[in-house]
């Protein structure tokens, strides 16, 4: 397996992760999103050239307005008093999908580790402290297993949950 950035000439082939929205994004929307500088997509290529997984990244922030109660206090307390703001920069996982052909092989967790290392090693272009995701309810256990925490309880009845990971945990 190898991780490659999506390029305009990358040959997108059939991809099926079992979710039509995630499939459609890769096949129809990923390249236009890059051209518009909305999101960058990365492909996990199997040794035989098939697309085993993909994810896309974009800019985000964690804001006091989104988070309630003790979670915001915890987030804010990790910064010195003179650096306690109303929001903090983050990178958002816009899409994250593993092909049905590669499920059950720990590829999702391995890809999440590669994603974090990619971000941890690319600190010179933009500053951020957190990794965020609007996780589909079916994917919440995957993100929890990979160290993500819920930002709020306000979205418990929604079809996605806002979650975050503190990138400083990698630096330690």
Characterization of the model:
The protein is an alpha+beta fold and 172 residues long. Helix content is 28%, strand content 30%. The chain is built from five helices and seven strands. The chain has helices at 20-35, 70-77, 107-121, 140-145, 168-171, and strands spanning 2-5, 40-45, 51-63, 87-98, 130-136, 149-150, 160-166. The protein has a seven-stranded mixed sheet with strand order 1-2-3-4-5-7-6, sandwiched between helices. Helix 3 (107-121) links the parallel strand 4 (87-98) and strand 5 (130-136). The protein is globular, with a radius of gyration of 16 Å. The two termini are 27 Å apart. The mean pLDDT is 88.
What's the structural blueprint in terms of helices and strands?
Elements: E1 2-5, H1 20-35, E2 40-45, E3 51-63, H2 70-77, E4 87-98, H3 107-121, E5 130-136, H4 140-145, E6 149-150, E7 160-166, H5 168-171
Parallel strand pairs: 4-5
Antiparallel strand pairs: 1-2, 2-3, 3-4, 5-7, 6-7
Principal-axes geometry comes out as: globular
**Widest beta sheet: strand line-up:** 1-2-3-4-5-7-6
- What's the count of strands? 7
The rounded distance between the terminal residues' Cα atoms is 27 Å
Helix content: 25-40%
The number of helices is 5
Q: Structural class given helices, strands, pairing?
A: alpha+beta
Segments where pLDDT lies below 50 for 5+ residues? none
The description of the largest β-sheet is: 7 strands, mixed
Order of helices and strands: EHEEHEHEHEEH
Approximate strand percentage:
25-35%
Please state the CA-atom Rg, rounded to the nearest Å: 16 Å
- Give the mean pLDDT: 88
């Amino acid at each position: 397996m190898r991780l490659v950035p999506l390029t305009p000439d990358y040959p997108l082939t059939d991809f099926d992760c079992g979710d039509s929205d995630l499939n459609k994004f890769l096949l129809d929307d990923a390249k236009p999103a890059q051209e518009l500088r909305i999101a960058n997509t990365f492909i996990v290529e199997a040794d035989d050239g098939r697309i085993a997984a993909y994810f896309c990244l974009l800019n985000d922030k964690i804001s006091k307005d989104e988070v309630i109660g003790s979670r915001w206090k915890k987030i804010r307390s990790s910064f010195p008093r003179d650096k306690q703001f109303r929001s903090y920069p983050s990178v958002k996982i816009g899409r994250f999908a593993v092909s049905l052909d590669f499920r059950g092989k720990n590829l999702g967790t391995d890809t999440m580790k590669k994603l974090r290392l990619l971000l941890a090693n690319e600190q010179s272009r933009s500053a951020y402290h957190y990794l965020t995701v609007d996780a589909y309810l079916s994917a919440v256990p995957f993100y929890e297993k990979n160290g993500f925490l819920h930002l709020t309880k306000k979205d418990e009845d929604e079809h996605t949950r806002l979650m975050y990971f503190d990138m400083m945990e990698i630096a330690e």
